[in-house]
């Protein structure tokens, strides 16, 4: 069974990623970024970086969304001062690479992963804020974050190094 043959609206499971998920997480991440038009070359260095799931999982937490035994999405959670943190400050849980297989986007899996990140943040004693970076023109993602209570923190926005691509920062105070 592939993501294109999934039953509409079956049960969604959010769970911790395992080693057997790594290849699928890498594929979904690249497919989602390519499909959204963020990259046009699968060999782009950043797309190579996001496929290093095993290395990433050594120092981060990764959750997956699964339907009918098939991984359809993933998200990575990081803490300030760690290798994969872009914007996390002390007492923040930053999430990155929230991706859903393009074949099943807009099915609720992204919202479910987002809510799982928030739930996980509430379990961590010294975390009082969830933070993220998203593309300035990624309006669907931004709308989801805003509906879920995140605020755009303009003073923390930044540019992809050596480009004019703006990345915007959102936070949710717990």
From TrEMBL:
| InterPro entries the UniProt entry points to | Acyl_CoA_acyltransferase (IPR016181), GNAT_dom (IPR000182), NAT_camello-type (IPR050769)
The GO terms this record gives for MF are: N-acetyltransferase activity
Annotated ranges, domain N-acetyltransferase: 12-174
Gene3D superfamilies, per database record: 3.40.630.30
- Pfam families for the chain: Acetyltransf_1
- Entry annotated with the keyword Nuclease: no
Q: Which keywords does UniProt give here?
A: Transferase
Could you identify this protein by its name? N-acetylglutamate synthase-like GNAT family acetyltransferase
User: What organism is listed for this UniProt entry?
Assistant: Paeniglutamicibacter cryotolerans
